[in-house]
Every structure is written in C-alpha cells, then in structure tokens.
Amino acid sequence: MLVQRLVQHAAQDPSAKPFHRMLRFDWELRLDLDGAVISDGLEPITVPDAAGKSRGAEHLVPAVVRTVGVAPNLAADDAQYVLGWADADSKPERVAQCHQAFIDLTRRWADSAEGRQDPIAQAMARFYSTGESTRLRPDPDAAAKQRVLITVDTTPAYRAPSVPTFWAAEVARRKGGGKHGLCLVCGKTGPLLDTLPGKVPARLVPGASNDAALVSINERVFGYDLTTQLVCSPICITCGEGLSAGLVRALDSDQTTSYGGQDSRLAWWVTEPVPRNPMKLILDADPMQVGDLLESIHTAQTAPSPDTAKFCALTVGGNVARVMVRDWLEMPLSTVEKNVAAWFLDHEIATLHPDEPVRQPLQRLVRVTGRWQRAERRYAFLGAKGGAHPHGAQRDLLRAALRNTPLPPSLLTHLLHRVRTDGRLDTPRAALIRLALLRSPLTTETPMPGLDDTNTDPAYVSGRVFAALESLQYDAFEGKLNTTYANRYFAGAVTNPRAALITGRKLADAWLRKFRGPRTGTAINHSRDLDQLFELLDASTGIPGRTTPKQQALFLLGYHHQRAYRFATLRQRAAARTTPEDTTTTGAELNQEISA
C-alpha cells in the first residue's frame, strides 16, 4: 500500500516530468543552431542563494540513477560526459568512456524519429560530428564532475520538444532489462524494471550520506531467495518512476518535519482536501485550534472529518545510500484526529507560570529531552554537540501522537536521568512524564493534570512533601538562599525519597522557628500542610526507599503538581490584594520562586 500511495501522490502533481531530476549546474555551454560554440568557452553560472552566496542554478533535467557504471544523461551532464574533461581526481580512461557514451546518446537522439525534426537535437549532434567540441580547451576551474548546462540559441537543450518521448524510451531500454510481468503496484502486465530510475537527494533523508534509493538489492545476500534487482518486487517502468517521484515530492514538500540530530524525517499528506490538518496541530499546538478539535470530538455534534479522507504519514531515515522506512501510517482522518485529541489530553499539565501553555508543541517536547544549560538558562539546541537528545525522540513522540500508543520505556528512562542530572523539572518535562505514565501498561491509576489530593501513592506523596519542604525553606529565609534544600537533595530524592525527606523533616523544625511576629500564621500553615502530607505517607507504606522508574516519574509528577498549586495560590493572593505595595511584593516572591 505504501508504494501505491506514493505512485498516486506523484500523479497529483500535473507539472511533474517523468524521469527528470532537479540538479545544480555550475557552467553553461552556449551553441547556435549550427552546433557552433557562441563564446570562447564555458561560462560560469552564479545565482545568489538565501544566504547571499553565489551558487549554481538548479534545473529539472532528464536524469536517472547513476551507480558505478557509465550512464550519460540527456542534453545536460557533468563536464566529463559533455566535454571529456578530466581533473586530478579522475581517471582519463573512464572519462573517455563517459564522453563517448554521451556522444553516442546524442547521436541516437538526433537519429530518432523524434529528434530528426528537432533543431536542438540536430545542433547538438553537429557540435560533435563537426569536431566543434574539440575546439574548446579545458577550463582549469571546471572540475570533471561539475555539471554543464547546454543551451542552443538561448534555449536549454533539455527543453527540446523531442526530449520527453526519446528519454522515456531510453530509460525503459536501460532499466527494463527486457523482462515482462505483473506489476505489484498497478496490477498490469508490462515491461518491468531492474532498478528504480530515481533516487532521493541525501538532504531529504537524515542519516544518508549519498543520494538514496528506496529499494536497492545489488547483492544476493540482501534479496529474498538470494535474488537481486527487483525480482521479488516487480514494478513496471511507469510505476517505478511514479514511486521515485512521489517519494521525493512527499519528502521535499512543506508538509514534512525533521529536527537537527534526529534520525528520521516525517512527511504527511491527505488524500482529499480537508479543512483541518492534524499534523499542524501537533507541531504548533495552537490553543484555539486544539480547543476547537477537542470540543468537536467531545460534543460529537459533527464528525471531525469525512471517513473517506485518508491520512498518510511516512517516516524515513537513511543509511549511506539507502532509504529506511521507519514507519508508515494510513488511517481514516477522523481516527487520526481522535488520536491527536487524546495526545493533547494525555500530556495536558498544570503550569508553573501563567504565560505557559497547558499543551505543548512537538518541537518543545523533543527539545526538553536534551541537556539543560544552566549558564545560558536554556535547553541545548537540537542537533548540537553534547545536546544529549535521543536520536529517535521525534519519531517516538510522533508515533505516539498519531497512533495513540505508549512512549518507549527508554524515552522515560532517559528523561528521568536528565531531570536528575540537570536538576530541572519544568512544565514541558512534567507534561512528558504525565504522558508516559498515563500510557504505560504498568500504571493502574490515572495521573491528573493538576494536584490530586486523593492520590495516596507513596511516591506521588513523597514528591509533594519534597516540594512543601522546599517552599517552607524559601519562605523561612524570604528567598535569601545561596544553596537550597532542593539544590542539595533533589537528585537523590528522586531515586531514594526516604533519606531526603527524613533529613528535610528534621530541618523543618529549625526553618519554622525563623517565622516570628506577623509571619507566625505562615509557619502554622506550613506546619499543618507538612503534617497532613506525612500522615498520608504513614497511613500507607511509609516513605519509599529505592524507587523504580515508574515511582521516580510519580515522585516528579507530585513535586511538579505541588509547586504548580503553590504558584497558582500565590498568584490568586496577589490578585486579591488591593495595595500596590502588597501586590508588587507577592509578585516578586513568585517570580523568584519560579526561577529557583
């Protein structure tokens, strides 16, 4: 089904040209209609790119996959093919073979039924038959593998009217191998391909060092029943071209996502026009659009999308010159929208700051799996050296969002390690932890987005106690702290809450004595809250010792919920006060604690 969808996807592009590829050209060879060179030599092609640097110009030219053999393209190619020029890195014998193959192809083109009436094909043939090509002296600045664009009377030769028909027949001759059979894509009998006629540019396939092919079986050990080529994947010439073109069209569109340092690229499309794009919701997490999706599904007043519309998503990675399909999804769009709605509900979390969203965009979730750089007060950029982002984080999160599946246990383990190492648990990280817990088969309860007073799990309550002790110390010293209780004990408390909480309980008595005069009421409130929380621990199984990854996640979730609840309470108190001085003081206190 994947191959069929890619062929159908290619057919949706009316401007596509069969067996053509976008290539960059550095030089131009100008000919007149008699095949004579107009200028004294090659002229460089320079076009400014987005960064202002001069580069060659891109053209959609007749081209096929080129492996180790000699295989000329039509009407435009490398300098070694077009002019027979070699450089220090090339072998003269091979360059001569390439040049002769290009001449032979040009002559066949000019002698074909299509080319005999084409003045451009005839001009190129005369360029070689009259010896005009030998008049050009090699340009020392032109490398053998730099591409040369040929123009005839100001018209690029590849735009000649006879090119499409002749080139399609030439590709069929090269790639077909004379075999006929049933195509697994279209179900029709016809000439079959030995190899696919096109490749995907390396820039579109993370992990690929060369232009990559979707199917490449050049050794018997790689093929089923020790077969090579496309024997076990029979594809006709037309479908083979559509497969390559559809794959490039999908991966090179604006409906793709790939982050630096990640091992995959995801492309998606919908088989019918639809008013709402679920992938855009995952990527942007626009609050109003997400709210509309959740409301439409919750009320069920209208179907989210017609069931006839199919959502297709292809995730690929690369290995040298091969495309690896990491995931393929074809699902009714209505089902995908329900999964996306569940995705946002499952990672919804109470925020530490009022300006933060309760639901996170994909890139933020991927980014917080990496290292927190304390000096810069930001997370390491995706793909940065030492950023510590898992290579498959983007792929794992997208799969969970689109398929409504659990997160890999390795991702939660990595995130727990990063929280302990960095000493930072913020809203996006807490959202990921809640998502992992909610979808884990080991979780029997339902973690809430905000503080859950009814949750008596010892690990969850321990996290709340730790946050309560942290806030008690902050209030006792009025925020004037060099090293906090959390700085000293947070990392250890995640894996062994008992030691940290017993120490904190002893320190709490000294902190409570810091409150005097009008602050006595605050001390009473802190003492009451701690007593109630410790009673929850005593009533269950006591303070946990060594914790499992699930217990560590619950500890952190309880810690985050308690902090978020405290900050929300402080904001409410600040809003309730009437004097500007009181409001300013409380706001400053809140900001300090959030940054702490």
Automatic annotation (TrEMBL):
InterPro entries given in the database record: CRISPR-assoc_prot_Csd1-typ
Ranges where the record places region Disordered: 575-596
Residue stretches of biased makeup (Low complexity): 575-588
UniProt-listed Pfam families: Cas_Csd1 (PF09709)
Annotated protein name in UniProt: Type I-C CRISPR-associated protein Cas8c/Csd1
Primary gene name: cas8c
